[in-house]
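User: Good morning. I'm curious how guanosine-5'-diphosphate-alpha-D-mannose would be positioned relative to this chain. Could you predict the structure with it bound?
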Amino acid sequence: MSLVKTAMGKVALIIGVTGQDGSFLSDLLIEKGYEVHGVLRRASTFNTERIDHIYLDSLVRDMKQERHLFLHPGDVTDSSSMLRIIQSVQPDEIYNLAGMSNTRFSFHVPEYTAEVDALGPMRVLEAIRILGLQEKTKVYQASTSELFGDTPIFPQNENTPFNPCSPHAIAKQFGFCITKNYRESYKIFAVNGILFNHESERRGENFVSRKITLSAARIAQGKQEKLYLGNLNAERDWGYAKDYVECMWRMLQHNKPEDFVIATGVSHSVRELCKLAFEEAGIDLEFEGDGMDEVGIDVKTGRILIEVDPMYFRPTDVQKLVGSPMKAKNILGWNPDKTSFQQLVHIMVKNDMELVKNGKK
Ligand code: NAP
Ligand code: GDD
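Assistant: Good morning! Here's the predicted structure, ligand included:
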């Protein structure tokens, strides 16, 4: 495989390239003229669906033409693969997006979560140090608003104390701290993006936003009876993933390594998300009852479309998150208002209505 830089561009390595953010970031960096490399971990089925539009393209393209995306087998739980890949790619920028990103599931696999979310970032930073790439390679670490956990402070910003309350968040706190520590100890340009929830038409189907938009599309087209959810009161600051990956890139172009909160500054409840998504799908929804007995009813037909299932509750849940994007807005010139919550839900439901209509979901 040729590792020759394309068009004098920079070389980026995305760990977690097959995920929601990794795929949008690949699109963005390729558009900016980067040569993009990604880490592909082993899965029992193909896991490149989100990047097939760029990866398969490059496979079928005449090999004399430029390729922009190169995949390398590896895993953040395996130091040797991190060392080997970083050594061969010699990236100008590394985006470590690899994550055991499912908060609820992290309660079931706490040890593995720590391997990926805590030690993963350390392995990446160690590889840079061992390979002597401190001066060359900048690192973006995917930190999270989950770090604020059960906080009484609203909105949360870069100075808000952390109070993580899941194995995922606790492991991510190690990732946050080790990134800061390597920046201070070894002068590596390493930064944390403290990103609040961001969603899209490429979001995994077990996160609440996509679960709701897909179910709304399926119910509206008669392919599903009901949607079962957990905590309807939870509030999140939901933004559009496509806007957020742009800010990841901006953080690495900034003249000094700093950590930034990325958020919209507005939060909504799961219940509000349901109402809006079903409305987008053509169903007027009304909620009745309390607690476990609360139901979402189709106003027109009286049918119960949403029920609460205790299976989806977590041992501890973060009730409300809302971030302040002021630092990113003022210093990086990032626009937190580019895509509103209403627009985001519209994009997701429209996409899912099409997928369901075409029998793809
Ligand atoms: P995602 O869709 O779940 O993608 C996670 C990526 O990490 C996937 O490419 C996954 O590979 C990869 N991965 C998982 N374990 C790995 C391992 N052991 N070695 C190498 N790669 C591994 O998550 P996302 O929404 O894009 O989020 C990206 C990162 O930002 C995650 O670390 C997440 O925790 C963090 N974050 C996300 C949000 C959000 O709201 N989306 C907010 C704050 C922080 P497979 O495709 O093979 O599974
Ligand atoms: N997944 C899910 N499924 N969540 C539900 C459900 C359900 O059926 N019903 C209610 N919820 C509530 C959860 O209890 C939580 O309070 C909220 O919806 C959001 O859940 P998720 O969409 O699963 O996201 P998350 O906030 O736990 O985690 C996401 O955002 C974090 C940043 O704040 C992930 O992307 C994490 O990787 C990321 O760190």
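Residues 1-7 have pLDDT under 50 and may be disordered. Residues 99, 101, 103-104, 144-146, 196-197, 206-209, 211, 229-231, 234, 236, 270, 312, 314, 317-318, 321 surround guanosine-5'-diphosphate-alpha-D-mannose (ligand 2) (CB under 6 Å).
Let me know if you'd like a different ligand tried.
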